[in-house]
Design goal:
The chain has 14 helices and eleven strands. A hairpin with a 5-residue loop joins strand 6 and strand 7. The longest helix is centred in the middle third of the chain and has 18 residues, at 151-168. Helix 5 (118-125) packs across helix 8 (171-181) and helix 6 packs across helix 7 (151-168). The strands form three sheets. The protein has a five-stranded mixed β-sheet. The chain has helices at 53-59, 63-66, 72-83, 93-105, 118-125, 134-141, 151-168, 171-181, 193-197, 224-231, 237-243, 256-271, 342-358, 368-377; strands at residues 7-14, 24-33, 36-44, 87-90, 114-117, 204-209, 215-221, 248-253, 306-314, 322-329, 338-339. It is an alpha+beta fold. It is globular, with a radius of gyration of 24 Å. It folds into three domains: 7-181, 2-Layer Sandwich (Nucleotidyltransferase, domain 5), CATH 3.30.420.10; 193-271, GIY-YIG endonuclease (3-Layer(aba) Sandwich); 306-377, no CATH class.
Length: 378
């Protein structure tokens, strides 16, 4: 079937749309080797949280269905053994595989599969069709799906789609399109998957170095492992020319998104990587060239707290879905933490940070957990 490797057709049902925050509630997969089914696997998963009514309405999976289901950690070893070194194919694979990676990351296990999106394959083979959703493919080929939005049934539809494409075209054409759309982690000769597996699945800053020990690139990530591996997936020619010279990947953990962003700016200024990028914060507050500007360094002494305000969404500075943070002034002799008013935060957040960081008294980034501990002590 298409390639001389095991292909895992995968589908997951989840409690929501955001990997890492939402959880997997069902896993279904069917595996092929040389055109023959070699494995089928399905299981409900206890997500350790409530399944929203909307998800139950779509999947039919209720909280009562998963209360006695295994936790992900209980099935992780078997699942890992099943999919290790296989090609993972899913409809919108970035969704399913990101959830799978996030679940394994909670167990400090990293996945390194080559992946393929059947949506992209459908668009490549059938460009004259406007719709490429799984429902559209079911209608296009008059396929039967007894339990739509259930993991194993949907995974089987994806495998059936491949067979239908082979019937419509030649085996060679489908195989060529498959290989064209396959995302492969192409590591340079001096790096191995073991090097990547040492990277954390958490906030941080990472660097790429060449054989001469020069820093080639500095980047930040919510998940360092995922971000670094994504660099090596289906590289463009320019990116390939950069990455083929990488001999070492290093990382520095940070407290949260904001800490990662500012530490990336600090390292870029300090290390002067060969390949740099410009940093731009939206609005009038700060427009900088990361190489030529002398930004304040990210502090390590004293106290400063960046606390996420839950449920407050805005469009502030860097991201469409930026969450507001509060800056805390703290005097070691004081017994309380003084939060700056939100109005000041909104109007001059970056200016406040810059002025505080340039002051002689240092500051430190605290996680929310550390803040709670700090409050209890003081």
């Amino acid at each position: 079937m298409i390639v001389d490797r095991i292909i895992t057709f995968l589908d997951l049902e989840t409690t929501g749309s955001k990997a890492g925050r939402d959880r997997v509630i069902e896993i279904g997969l069917i595996q092929y080797l040389n055109g023959k089914v070699i494995n089928e696997y399905e299981t409900l998963v206890n997500p350790e949280c409530v399944i929203p009514d909307m998800i139950t309405g779509i999947t039919g999976i209720r909280n009562s269905d998963v209360v006695d289901a295994p936790l992900f950690k209980s099935i992780a070893l078997k699942l890992y053994e099943l999919i290790e070194d296989t090609i993972v194919v899913a409809h919108n694979v970035s969704f399913d595989y990101s959830f799978l990676r996030a679940e394994f990351a909670k167990l400090e296990v990293n996945l390194n599969n080559d992946i393929l999106c059947s949506v992209k394959l459908s668009k490549d083979l059938y460009p004259h069709f406007k719709k490429h959703s799984l429902d559209s493919i079911i209608d296009r080929f008059n396929l039967t799906c007894e339990r739509r939005h259930r993991a194993l049934d949907d995974a089987k539809i994806i495998s059936n789609f491949i067979q239908c494409a082979v019937n419509d075209f030649s085996f060679e054409k489908v195989s060529t399109a498959f290989r064209k759309n396959l995302k492969v982690i192409n590591l340079p000769s001096k790096l191995s998957h073991k090097d990547l597996n040492k990277l954390p699945s958490s906030f941080g800053v990472y660097t790429f170095e060449n054989e001469a020990g020069q820093v080639m690139y500095v980047g930040w990530a919510k998940n360092v492992y995922l971000e670094v591996t994504n660099h090596f997936l289906n590289q463009s020619l320019r990116r390939e020319n950069i990455l083929k010279s990488v001999t070492k990947v290093d990382f520095m953990p940070t407290f949260g998104e904001l800490g990662a962003i500012f530490f990336e700016i600090k390292l870029t200024n300090d290390l002067k990587p060969i390949y740099t990028k410009k940093f731009k914060l939206f609005g009038k507050y700060l427009l900088v060239d990361s190489v030529s500007s002398n930004l304040p360094w990210w502090p390590i002494n004293g106290y400063m707290c960046i606390e996420e305000q839950k449920g407050t969404e805005g469009q502030l500075f860097l991201f469409k879905n930026w969450r507001l943070y509060a800056v805390v002034d703290f005097n070691e002799d004081s017994t309380s933490l003084n939060f700056l008013p939100s109005s000041i935060l909104e109007k001059g957040f970056i200016d406040i940070l810059a002025s505080k960081l340039q002051s002689k008294s240092g500051y430190k980034i605290m996680s929310e957990f550390e803040l709670r501990q700090f409050e209890e002590i003081h």
